[in-house]
Amino acid sequence: MTDTNVQKRLLLVEDDKSIAMGLEYSLTQEGYAVEIRETVADSIAWLKSAECDFAVLDLSLPDGSGYEICRYIKAHTDIPVIFLTACDDEVNVVMGLDMGADDYITKPFRIRELLSRIQSVSRRYNRQEAQPVAQYGDVRVNLKQARVFKGDREVLLTALEYRLLLTLIQHEGQVLSRRQLLAGIWDVAGYFVNDNTLTVYIKRLREKLEDNRENPQIIRTVRGLGYKVGD
Fold first, then answer.
1. CB of 101 closer than 8 Å to CB of 70
2. What is the mean pLDDT of each run of 10 residues along the chain (231 residues)?
3. Rounded-to-integer distance, Cα 228 and Cα 209, Å
């Protein structure tokens, strides 16, 4: 477990100097040691030589995209990533989350909103460290590595499918309403995912994890209330 007295190092990639300065001040006040970079190349070069606990990435950069930095981070380490961008269409949101980003905030935004999102994502990671493996029948979820196994076979989930499963695991034994699940996926109540889309993702998870999706034993429906995993 990380020592809470140790200052966490946060990479902030933002080429707008005024935004970067304002964020640096607020994040420093929250106890982060902030490292600012303005380009993809500089960000990756810094990551190769330094340890980092969190990354906040602008999407549009002078020499490329924040997606490139996110890919590098997820290929080499296990730290949370939040995108900051002016581009809020659903295709870009889903693409960012599917490559492993933990949240997505559109500009303009309020500083308190970003700080709240950082704290929320950090809590999820801390819970994963405290409970490294969850087991349901022959389904095993390695929370530190974000990997899912059914028996000896690894089950490949999209980032959104895994986020949905993780939300249920983090509330094991508790019935979660559809609204709570939407909020758990996006940290806002279903801003990008509607109720019908949630039904599709529940179905996909069951197809991948259940022995009999018509009689699910892992992700169970509590009629009129929602879904739950565990007893």
1. yes
2. 63 93 92 95 94 92 92 85 76 68 81 86 69 86 87 89 86 84 59 71 93 91 90 74
3. 14
In this structure, the strands spanning 32-37 and 54-58 are unpaired
Mention every residue, 6+ apart, whose C-beta is less than 8 A from residue 77: 47, 52
Structure tokens at 121: 């994502």
The pTM (predicted TM-score) of the whole model is 0.58
Question: Which residue, among 12, 106, 22, 15, has the nearest Cα to 61 in the 3D structure?
Answer: 15
How many residues does the structure list for the chain? 231
Question: 139: which residues sit within 8 A by CB, 6+ positions away?
Answer: 148, 149, 150, 155, 209, 218
| Residue located via tokens 């969850």 | 134
Question: What's the CA gap between 197 and 101, in Å, rounded?
Answer: 20
DSSP string, the chain: ---TTSPEEEEEE-S-HHHHHHHHHHHHHTTEEEEEE-SHHHHHHHHHHS--SEEEEESEETTEEHHHHHHHHHHH----EEEEES---HHHHHHHHHTT-SEEEESS--HHHHHHHHHHHHHHHHHHHHS-EEEETTEEEETTTTEEEETTEEEP--HHHHHHHHHHHHTTTS-B-HHHHHHHHHSSSSSS--HHHHHHHHHHHHHHH-S-TTS-SSSEEETTTEEE---
